[in-house]
Amino acid sequence: MDKIYLNKMEFYGYHGLFPEENKLGQRFLVDLALELDLKKAGQTDNMDESIDYGRIYQVTKEIVEGEASKLIENVAEKISASLLSEFDKLMACTIKVIKPDPPIPGHYNSVAIEIYRERSQ
Predict the structure, then answer these.
(1) How many Cβ atoms sit within 10 Å of the Cβ of residue 1?
(2) Contacts of 36 (CB under 8 A, 6+ apart)
(3) Quick one: pLDDT at residue 99?
(4) Residue 121: pLDDT over 80
């Protein structure tokens, strides 16, 4: 399956278990790998045969910057469900949500989760 990648999209949201996360908010990074057949798009140079990257970004932004979730796992599920619902050509997606500054003591770059979801047949 062919893939479209949107990498390191950055948003500001209020997700987390701790009250200060819900009040102050923090940065979130999102990586997407979208699986679909891109052969016709490549052959015809016709946007209707692909997926609008700008719309993908908007859907993701609305979720990450929207209603707060306790878990980034829930954020990823909402993104995958919305993308699979809105884009008929999309067959599967991998969603990675990265929390670069979680309120966890220690030295690390970030925490992240990644999910893979397919369209139901």
Answers:
(1) 9
(2) 1, 2, 3, 4, 50, 51, 87, 89, 90, 91
(3) 97
(4) no
Given 23, 40, 89, 99, which residue is catalytic?
99
Angle, alpha carbons 80-28-11 (nearest 5°) = 85
8: left (phi over 0), alpha (psi -120 to 50) or beta: left
Domain 2-118, CATH = 3.30.1130.10
Distance of CA 86 to the CA centre of its chain: 14
Active site residue 99: yes
3-state secondary structure of 33: strand
For 35-53, what is each residue's pLDDT tens digit?
999 999 999 999 999 999 9
Strand partners, 95: 32, 115
